[in-house]
Design brief:
By secondary structure, the protein is of the alpha/beta class. The chain is built from 26 helices and 41 strands. 44% of the residues are buried. It is globular, with a radius of gyration of 29 Å. α7 packs across α8 and α16 crosses α18. β34 and β35 form a beta hairpin. The two termini are 27 Å apart.
Length: 821
């Protein structure tokens, strides 16, 4: 969309300051994502943890001239070429501008909401309809109060259909998104427990989501879910297009779902006509998502023949930017599933923000960008400018169109007409020690490029969902006051998930402190590019130089450690080095005595200038159980006494914190200045061990399947003897990977194609065996050890231990793959 700054000002009814009146092509809310400064309008949005007004000066220096603000800069004269649009609320102004953009287009717009499956349904609709229509859709999971307006802004003169997903986390949010999207076609995927903490009931959440469709021409939903069906009747949609597997009178009746080894047949009846589709997936979620897409296609009058043909060609939606180790010391960012200019900008932004990209060459492997409606010259001129802005050092272009525009690209570049030509060249083997982003349209089959680049390692991987991690942070923030600070525990390699990637995500999320056990862990974070505050919980006497060199703030728990630290700091010429005083209020592990040590501690600290107390803290023993509340009361009283005695000795504010994950939820009145979040970050509620949002999924693959007759034994020492003829699969995970040997001999199980498969025989060092006799599966199929479908609590209960132990036991030889939904 394109408006002048003057037109935007009128739309927003803003107070217009300044003389600049350029054309607005791009909207920006995150200063780190700037690409085209001349045509960018920056919205200075104020949040609980940040304020966009802080970045105006930097953006102006980088060429941005148009700003939407709430507060006029104090030094307005420093921006002589800028235009400022002052509004009461910058976020609402962003939504208001997107609403005006939406009203410019009289085209079908599909709005998708629900608890799960929104992105998959959106992407599959695009796969099914894009051969016939020019579609604008939400980039990735841009479904928030900020993401939805940014998505709608992408509508342009070539757009024939819009597909936008909308997500909410609390009451009152969907009404604003409805005004922005104004869908003519609605799809309600399903209703689950996500974000339930901010709703009084599932019914309240369902009604809130339904507000997206109050003026829609049609609403598509699963009538077999009674709550959804009841709420749909009150949605305000003109027509309800219900589908059902139970009610043959439904507009779309699903008469049969037949799962095969690697695909599913779905038979249906629509307005009297019978039809059948086949999808190359077998999970229940995929079937539900496909039926929603089928309903959309039928409503839009796509022929059953075309629907059947395209359904069989549906591809897995990779809702993630995968970061992998590559050969020859390269870092590989895999985004080889779709390609458009907006998602390219997002992927380049992701690459640029990575600390491990610092000092390394940045290489982009890019295919032709299809179905943009622009001429090749105009399109690749924009791409060339984007690459220049994002400091891409080398471009490898694949496809006839990008190759024909080779002259537009400055710097080092190579071009190939086909993916096969690229693979047959030697160029990929020359990539060394660089960050490589692979970005391609589906027809180019860049999966082969990824395969040729990635480091061939152990087939067992731990997938880490960084978006789920952020959702867990927000879950606990919902119990906190905005001004309360947060420490996040990333010790033990981020509870097994990998400290560096987790820490970078937490840093972007605005947490105030990261905490690790020892100084070497903190130094590794610094080397990886983490710049925020880092707390060392168990500093060793030999680590003081590391603390000073890397600005790591130690916990101090007794006078011996304090004296040694002061001496080392004075020797290094260090002054006012921040330390964190630990009080023992009942754990009896480490800490000063809050009743007898405080005056001596204050006196000693006053007699030196090497260190200064920054915080004082203690640790609840039993905040996860009401059975220990009386003891928690005594602990808090002791901490209050000790911390107040320390504070009384100093004129500066000393941060106080005692609440851990369970305390955050159960003791809001005891949050004080800061809280410490541990296991909750990783999606496990320490009160009941239930999953909040799962972060880690341990997966492997079936290596071999063999038929074993009854009476034969499995594994070492013949511990499991088969009672019937069985199919036994071998999977490449063992106790050296962290799989506990006590799970063997049918004491535990994993999931194969979502069905439980018992471990049989003793678990070996590198391999174990599972019984798949009653499961439809083949060699190469995925196996879930724990994760999205098999909660880690299930394993910890079987092992009579705690989830911490299961998570932190995953071996370092297991590759971590990080992604964002």
């Amino acid at each position: 969309m394109h408006y002048t700054i003057e037109q935007v000002g009128k739309i927003l009814k803003a107070n217009h300051l300044g003389v600049h009146d350029g054309m607005i092509n791009w909207l920006l809310t995150d200063s780190r994502s700037l690409s085209f400064p001349e045509g960018t309008l920056f919205f200075a949005i104020h949040t609980q943890k940040n304020d966009g007004h802080h970045y105006i000066e930097d953006l102006y220096k980088r060429g941005v001239r148009s700003f939407v603000i709430e507060k006029i800069p104090d030094n307005l004269s420093a921006y002589p070429k800028a235009a400022f649009l002052q509004v009461p609320n910058s976020l609402e102004a962003l939504q208001q501008l997107a609403t005006a953009c939406r009203l410019e287009f009289q085209i079908p717009v599909i709005g998708v909401t629900g608890s799960n499956g929104k992105t998959v349904v959106k992407e599959w609709i695009n796969q099914l309809l894009s051969p016939d229509m020019h579609i604008v859709r939400s980039p990735r999971s841009y479904n928030s109060q900020v993401g939805v307006p940014l998505s709608v802004w992408l509508l342009n003169d070539h757009s024939e259909l819009g597909v936008f997903e909308a997500g909410i986390s609390k009451v009152g949010e969907m009404e604003r998104l409805q005004q922005v999207v104004q869908p003519t076609i609605g799809v309600f995927t399903n209703l689950g427990t996500a974000h339930q903490e901010n709703f009084a009931s599932k019914e309240e959440k369902c009604r809130e989501k339904m507000q997206l469709f109050k003026h829609s021409d049609v609403l598509i939903f699963n009538a077999d879910d009674v709550l959804i069906a009841d709420c749909a009747k009150e949605s305000g949609a003109a027509h309800l297009m219900a589908w059902s597997q139970k009610d043959a009178s439904s507009e779309l009746f699903i008469s049969r779902v037949q799962k095969k080894v690697s695909s599913t047949l779905i038979s249906y009846q629509y307005k009297g006509d019978k039809g059948q589709i086949e999808i190359p997936f077998i999970s229940d979620a995929s079937v539900e998502n496909a039926i929603h897409c089928l309903a959309v296609c039928l409503y839009l009058h796509l022929s059953q023949t075309v629907i059947k043909e395209r359904m069989l060609q549906l591809e897995q939606v990779a809702m993630r930017l995968e970061v992998k180790e590559a050969q020859r010391g390269c870092v590989l960012i895999n985004d080889s599933y779709n390609s458009d200019i907006q998602s390219l900008d997002i992927a380049l932004d992701f690459m640029n923000r990575r600390p491990d990209a610092s000092g390394k060459r940045r290489t982009l492997i890019l295919s032709d960008i299809l179905q943009t409606g622009l001429t090749a010259g105009r399109l690749y001129e924009q791409v060339a400018q984007l690459l220049d802005t994002r400091n891409v050092n080398c471009l490898i272009g694949v496809g006839p169109e990008i190759s024909s525009c080779a002259s537009l690209f400055k710097g080092e570049s190579y071009f190939f007409k086909t993916t096969r030509d690229l693979l047959e060249s030697a160029i990929l083997q020359k990539l060394s020690g660089e960050v490589v982003l692979v970005k391609g349209a589906r027809p180019f089959g860049f999966e082969k490029v990824i395969e040729s680049l990635e480091l061939k390692v152990h087939e067992t991987i731990l997938e880490v969902n960084l978006n789920a991690l952020v959702q867990n942070i927000n879950y606990y923030r919902s119990f906190m006051k905005p001004e309360t600070k947060m420490v996040c525990m990333v010790k033990a390699s981020g509870y097994g998930t990998g400290a560096l990637e987790v820490s970078k995500t937490l840093q972007d999320c605005g947490v105030d402190y990261l905490a690790v056990a020892v100084a070497d862990e903190g130094a590794d974070l610094r080397k990886g590019g983490v710049t925020g505050n880092i707390l060392i919980m168990n500093p060793e006497m030999t680590s003081f130089k590391t603390l000073f060199d890397y600005q790591l703030e130690p916990e101090v728990y007794n006078f011996g450690l304090l004296e040694a630290l002061i001496h080392a700091a004075e020797k290094e010429g260090v002054t006012n080095f921040p330390i964190h005083i630990k009080l023992d209020t009942g754990m009896h592990r480490l800490g000063f005595n809050p009743e007898t040590d405080m005056q001596q501690l204050v006196d000693r600290l006053h007699k030196q200038t090497a260190v200064i107390p920054k915080s004082v803290f203690s640790h609840f023993v039993g905040s996860d159980s009401s059975a220990f509340d009386a003891f928690s009361d005594r602990q808090f009283a002791l901490f209050k006494k000790g911390s107040e005695a320390l504070q009384a000795g100093f004129g500066h504010k000393i941060i106080r914190h005692i609440c851990n994950s369970a305390g955050i939820e159960r003791f809001p009145e005891r949050h004080l200045d800061m809280v410490r979040l541990g296991l909750g970050i990783y999606g496990i509620n320490s009160i009941d061990n239930e999953v909040i949002h799962n972060v880690a999924t341990l997966k492997t693959t079936i290596l071999q399947i063999r038929e074993v007759p009854a009476g034969d034994s499995i594994g070492y020492s013949r511990k499991t003897v088969l009672e019937r003829d069985s199919r036994i699969a071998a999977i490449p995970i063992g106790y050296a990977d962290g799989l506990n040997r006590r799970l063997g001999n049918r004491k535990g199980f994993c999931l194969v194609n979502d069905q439980p498969a018992s471990y049989v025989g003793n678990i070996c060092m590198d391999v174990c065996m599972i019984d798949v006799s009653d499961i439809s599966c083949k060699e190469g199929d995925k196996v879930e050890i724990f994760g999205d479908n098999l909660p880690v609590r299930t394993l910890s209960d079987l092992l009579e231990t705690i989830p911490y132990e299961v998570l932190t036991s995953v071996s370092t030889r297991v590759k971590r793959v990080y992604y964002k939904d």
